[in-house]
UniProtKB/TrEMBL annotation:
Domain called HTH lysR-type: residue spans: 8-65
Pfam hit, one: HTH_1
Taxonomy, superkingdom: Bacteria
Name of the protein in its database record: LysR substrate-binding domain-containing protein
Source organism of the structure: Amycolatopsis nalaikhensis
């Protein structure tokens, strides 16, 4: 069979998929080590060969046209077949079997994925592990385009959905846990040894450290404060690390996801403060392509994440503790503010 002259090149199809993933010809060009003009010329040449308009270009970026989306659908199948052919021809199948490409929302990638990897049945030396991060839309595109095997996403799907869900775009999700919010203070704060629950009006009146507006954590915090309105005094930071540092060395208060402060809680640098109402939580899901399925290591990691391994105990001062090595209880437990860290995000 002689291929027709207008047959697209694999590299050009891969470039188109990157434009779809990044929403920008410039970013796609950077990922392929091309200049933006060179990438634009290659896309335009493919459009002329096929007689199709593939991209809608604007100052805000580029998105695929209806024809572009249809071509991208075929391109994903072609690229997958090309990868399989390369594995067969180069003997790389065993090497690829030890490659794990993961992505996660920023907090998950920073605080949870490293722990899940360490608790899995393989070490970093036995596999090539690549971890990427991004917002929900970016993670979804990475899965669709085959740039990652698995992504951990927070707040994407409805909470409480145990098991798997089938979503559009050939994506499957599995519920991992709910990541709860908690009021957090430094070890020098009077509330660090407080024995009675905190009220929302008290929280709103305290000097706070908050994430920037537009972030998911800020939305959850605003939801918690509710009718109390905007806090009287606060400092905004664009990262959880900056917030933790600011709170640990001052008498300010913050609201953070429990998953992001577990090591500081265990070391005693930060403390949880009980609140007199149920704290909101956001679900964490594992997501992958149903068509491609999960490689062995990725499947193993999902199971580790879902089971959460051995719990790490963290307790509110002044409360009774319990054995962190066992979940079995021989008698009813009295109401307590004691909080198991993994229990708090499950």
């Amino acid at each position: 069979m002689v291929l027709p002259s207008k047959m697209p090149q694999l590299a050009d199809l891969d470039l188109l998929l990157s434009v779809e993933s990044y929403g920008s010809v410039g970013k796609a060009a950077q990922a392929h080590s091309l200049s933006q003009p060179a990438a634009s010329i290659r896309i335009s040449a493919m459009e002329r060969r096929l007689g199709l308009r593939l991209l809608e270009r604007s100052p805000a970026g580029s998105k695929l046209t209806e024809d572009g989306e249809m071509l991208a659908k075929y391109a994903r199948n072609v690229m997958q077949a090309a990868r399989e052919l390369l594995e067969f021809g180069s003997g790389a199948r065993s090497s690829e079997a030890k490659r794990l490409r993961i992505a996660g929302s920023p907090a998950i990638a920073e605080h949870l994925i490293p722990e899940w990897l360490n608790r899995s049945g393989f070490s970093f030396g036995e596999a090539r592990v690549e971890v990427r991060t991004g917002d929900v839309d970016a993670l979804r595109r990475l899965i669709r385009t085959g740039h990652v095997d698995l992504a951990f996403i927070d707040g994407w799907c409805r909470a409480g959905g145990e098991g798997r869900q089938q979503l559009r775009d050939d994506l499957v999700t599995r519920y991992i846990c709910d990541d709860k919010l908690a009021v957090v203070v430094g070890s020098r704060h009077p509330w660090a040894v407080r024995s009675t629950p905190l009220t929302v009006p008290e929280l709103a009146a305290a000097p706070l450290v908050l994430r920037e507006r537009g972030s998911g954590l800020r939305e959850f915090t605003d939801e918690l404060l509710g009718t109390e309105g905007a806090p009287e005094s606060y400092v905004e930071f664009p990262s959880t690390s900056a917030i933790k540092q600011a709170v640990a060395t001052s008498r300010r208060v913050t609201v953070l996801n429990v998953s992001t402060v577990r090591s500081e809680l265990a070391e005693g640098r930060l403390h949880l403060v009980a609140v007199d109402q149920e704290m909101p939580a956001k679900p964490i899901y594992a997501a992958w392509s149903e068509h491609r399925g999960l490689p062995e290591y990725a499947s193993e990691l999902v199971e580790i994440a879902a089971s959460k391994g051995s719990p790490v105990p963290v307790f509110v001062p002044g409360q009774k503790t319990r054995d962190a090595g066992s979940r079995k209880r021989t008698r009813p437990r009295k109401p307590s503010l004691a909080m198991d860290v993994h229990e708090s995000i499950a």
